Amino acid sequence: MKRSLQAGLLVLCGLGLLHVSLFTDLCLRYVKEGMRPLLIASGVVLLLLGVAGALLDRGQGAGDGHGHDHSGVPRVAWLLLLPALSLLFYAPPALGAYTAARQPAKAVVHDSDFGPLPRTSPLPMTLSDFTGRVRQDRGQAVKGRAVRMTGFVTPGDGGSWELTRIILNCCAADAQSVKVRVYGGPALPADTWVTVTGTWHPGGTLGTGSAAVALDARTVTKVPRPTNGYQDALPLG
To answer: How far is CA 31 from the centre of its chain?
Structure first.
């Protein structure tokens, strides 16, 4: 009845995919939200194939009178076992400071003219918007403005650290980091999610590529990790 082992592997893989995509939000550690329906569909297909294979094997066993199958399980099929068990019982953690510290910051390009900023203070901004304003806005609209951004902590050197967001184009394999160096504030552990309020830290010429993408922190507040942390979204709260 070795075909039943193949069916069991398919069922485990299907259950693993459904566990991370349908019953929990674990899939958002590895793929964008838009990929979730495809993962759910794949999990359902694998589960149905496994169940159908088990039923077919049982029927053949009853029909031939001895219930023995000389077909073996391909060795490569066993490679599915560990990922399936991992998805069910120990999902790998989300990408964070370890990944961000080992890759350069994502290049931010603003394709249109910069409009005036709202008068709100502190001004909620994404890390990408702040980076674009600092290095490309000739009007220097962020100069002296109090801004507020949310991300996670990536430890740095010289008493500073980096407020970070990881952005996915498709999945974790193409992840890119957006970073803003932060001066001041408490020394928090890596991967701590925070909302930072502060002003641009002078360095280079504002509005040009020489400008430092950095912030002098006034307040640093711990916040919960967003359900989908792979978006460069506006501050929480």
So the answer is: 7
pLDDT one digit per residue (tens) for the chain, 237 residues: 466 777 888 888 888 889 888 888 888 878 888 888 999 999 999 999 888 888 887 766 655 555 555 555 566 666 667 777 777 777 777 788 888 888 888 878 776 688 889 999 999 999 999 999 999 999 999 999 999 999 999 998 776 799 999 988 787 778 889 999 999 888 899 999 999 999 999 999 999 999 999 999 999 999 998 877 888 888 865
Q: What is the pTM of this model?
A: 0.74
Q: Give the C-alpha separation, 165 to 236, whole Å.
A: 13
- Find residue 200's DSSP bridge partners: 215
Cα–Cα separations (whole angstroms), residue 138 to 92, 117, 135, 206, 211: 43, 13, 8, 8, 11
Distance CA 95, CA 188 (A): 18
Name the nearest CA neighbour of 195 among 143, 233, 142.
233
